[in-house]
Amino acid sequence: MERTDETHGKAKRAQSPGPTHLAHSQAPMRPQELEHLREPAHTQAPNGTSSTDYSLLAAQVRSLSEEDAHWLPVLANASALIMESVPNLNWAGFYLMRDGRLVLGPFQGKVACVHIEVGRGVCGAAVKHDETQLVANVHEFAGHIACDSASNSEVVVPIHAGNGIVGVLDADSPLLGRFDEDDARGLEVVAAAIEKVADFSDLA
Ligand code: SME
Asked: Whose CA, among 131, 133, 135, 189, lies 20 to 30 Å from 27?
């Protein structure tokens, strides 16, 4: 699979300085410093369609770590940014690896299933194959786990830290075929931004 230079291929991961080398301010962010995060990273085209500026979204996600780089606040705010910036989502969030399976992490949307075994569902497939899953119709995906019956399409991107996968980014839409290759590559850029700034040392 072709990846942009900010995605998280194995070669790129091997060169990454890792979360322990990150410089981040100890001072709390002032309200005005959060202003740039309040601008949704999507634009409205004249024909009424809107698309996401994933580079801007990734930059916003990177800045989330400036006050506290621990994965919990970074992923909590990242799920809010994704939900706001990617049109037509009903669920956006994260599952994290714990004791060899995925456990529900920060998210926006309806109450979701708590545990997902590796290899099960779209999330488990992303972990098993260490590969982004782009699913145009979840009802045609063998083993899809329906947390929200409104979901019809889905993208799941693995997130890496240390020597392996620490979790997945999951985005669901009520629209069939909502996500295309650009969305999948864009969400990989967002996942790479998270890998770069978030401190997963208590998970990895
Ligand atoms: N549909 C996912 C389960 C997680 S929910 O979409 C939030 C899956 O099949 O793994």
From this structure: 189
Which residue's CA is the closest to the ligand 1 atom numbered 6? 147
Contacts 24+ apart (CB under 8 A), 21-26: 22/65, 22/69, 22/196, 22/197, 22/199, 24/65, 24/66, 24/67, 24/68, 24/69, 24/197, 25/66, 25/67
What does pTM read for this prediction? 0.82
pLDDT per position as a tens digit, 57-98: 999 999 999 999 999 999 999 999 999 999 999 999 999 999
CA distance 102 to 142: 18
Q: Quick check: is 5 in a domain?
A: no
- Number of domains making up the chain: 1
Pocket test for ligand 1, best of 89, 116, 141, 169 (most atoms within 8 A of CB): 116
